[in-house]
Amino acid sequence: MSDTSQDLPKAASSVDDVALDAHHVPKDIHDKFALKFVKFLRIFADRFFAKRYGHRAVVLETVAAVPGMVGGLLQHLKALRHIRDDQGWIKELIEEADNERMHLMTFIKIAEPSRMERLLIMVGQAIFYNFYFWLYLFMPKTAHRVVGYLEEEAVVSYTQYLNEIDAGRVENVPAPQLAIDYWNLPQDARLRDVVIVIRADEAEHRDKNHAFADAIVTGEHV
Known about the structure:
Blueprint: H1 29-49, H2 53-82, H3 89-110, H4 115-138, H5 140-166, H6 177-182, H7 191-218
C-alpha cells in the first residue's frame, strides 16, 4: 500500500497566509542555546549541500521527522504516568512527524540520494535521535525551541530553493503524483508548487513548536 493511500489530502489553500519572516527572539539562556545550536548545524548543511536544495531536503527531512515522533512518544508516556489528558499534544506531534516524512517521500522522487547521502542519513538520524530524546526527556521546552528554530531555517532554505527555481537555475519539473495527492494539488502542479506548500508546512511547525515551548514556560502544559 502506498504512503498516500493512508493519508487524507492536505489542503494547500492557506499558503498565502504564512508569515515567512517570523522569528522568536531568545528570552533566556536556553533559548539562546537552542538558536546557536541550530545556527551551528546550518553551517554544515550550507557547506555540504551548497545550492543542491533537493538533496539537502532529502537528508534534512529525514532528521526533521525525528522530533515529532520522539515528542509524541514521551508525551504519551508522561500522560500515562500522571494519568492525565495530554491536551492534544500527542496527536499534533505525531502528525508533524508524519508530515515531515511525506516531505522526505516527495523529495526522494525529485532528488535520488547518493550513497554518501544515504550514509549521512543513517549516521545523522542515529546521532540526532539520541540527542533529541535526552534533550526532550530533561528539557522539553528547549527541545521544542530547537525545533522552532530548525523550522525557521527550513523556511529560509525553501525560500532560497524557490528563488533558484524562479531564476531558472533549478528545473521546475512536474510534481510527483505522491505530492499531488497528499497536498491536493492540481494535476499539472510543478516543483515550485510543491516547495510552496512544504514551506507552509514548515512555517506551521515553526509556530506550533514555539507555542509548545511557551506553554511549558507559562505552566499551561506541565
